[in-house]
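Re: the 452-residue chain
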Amino acid sequence: MKSPRTAALAGIAALAMVGALAACSSGAADDGKLELRVATFPPGADQAAYDAFAEQEKQFEKANPDIDVVGVEYEWTAPTFAAQLAGGSLPDVFTVPFTDSKTLLENGQLMDVTDELKELGYADKFNPIILEEVTGSDGKIYGFPRQAYANGLHYNRALFEEAGLDPDQPPTTWDEVREDAKVIAEKTGKAGYATMATGNTGGWQLSVQADSRGASLQTDNGDGSYTSTIDNDATKATLEFLHDLRWEDDSMGATFDLDWGSINQEFAAGNIGMYTSGSDVYTALVRDFGMDPAIYGLTVIPTEDGGGVLGGGDIAVLPPTLDDETKAAAVKWVDWYYMQKLLDEDAAVADAKALAASDQAVGTPVLPVLDQETYLQSREWIQDYINVPLDQMTGFTEGIFEQTPVGEFKGKTQPIYALMDNLVQAVLTDQSADVDALLQQVDVDAQALLDE
């Protein structure tokens, strides 16, 4: 699931053109320039974000004087996508979550950019697991992976200290997470550990922890069909873990209907000791939820029994209806705005400088979309502009490359996350919940969705 970080990321699903900074459609502008409509931010983004974008827009147009960039506000939500595509109201460049990209490309709703990506010369630099997210069954590439994240364990350093725990030694196993959560709850009266449970985010985070314990939640049969395998030992262990924190330890507080936004709000307010979410959520915690950076800590999610870390992200894509001239301009924008800051020192520094000057976060930990060497080099380029407390995130930044990235299951991702929400809610609200029966039923229900 896209880390609502970026979207509010958890469970959002299609493109809703909520407002436009300009209402013109793509094509030739009055001055003869090609007008290129590009997605910017969801409605409500702060002015600093727009100031940074305006500076970047000027830089691009200076280098490409024949293109007039028009920024368009957008928010991704799937139910309206087909209508917007048919009506021509999509931007010429927009982003979609990994979880929705496969469906869109298989439906012929994204433009093939294979030749353009190869011509740019860095197709072989992508993390192959991430590149697979934009590769169709025909072997063609339908977008540019532009940012990714791995789920991490976020923790409140102030609550750790208040509970007598060392914030520089966060837990490294799920048993230690449980132990620390209980201490925090007893010593501070706050939730030692919390989890999302609604709006598809409960299923997302159940998947995160089950994957970390070695689960495989779905089997790709290789013929376009999938088999649900949610009912497994790792998923059961995760549900029992949540049950025990809730009912035996009383360490999860009193709120059990949290989603991405509300859990971030509670964490930023100092009411939660630990929770899991995308590693890139720091920016939203500070910018949107008012968190004091001094309380923040980030480490990797514990893994066991061959488990890996669930990641996600989004891709920059083009609608399949663009003419050749607009497509070429759109690829130029994607390459300049999204990709070059990962690949070129001058572009990386210019981007970081513009963000820092507008009080935007620079250096938030991510799951690199490119190879490790390229990623580490890019971090060196922008070192002088990094303004996030990386010394409070070393558990993640030093540990993430030792973990195995795991992609989200592909078949009916969001509808099945909704089913899995019910599992999380059941164990948090019913002390006698029958985990075995719940898992058996969710596999039946998930398979019914997959067989539609």
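The domain at 151-311+401-450 is CATH 3.40.190.10 (D-Maltodextrin-Binding Protein; domain 2).
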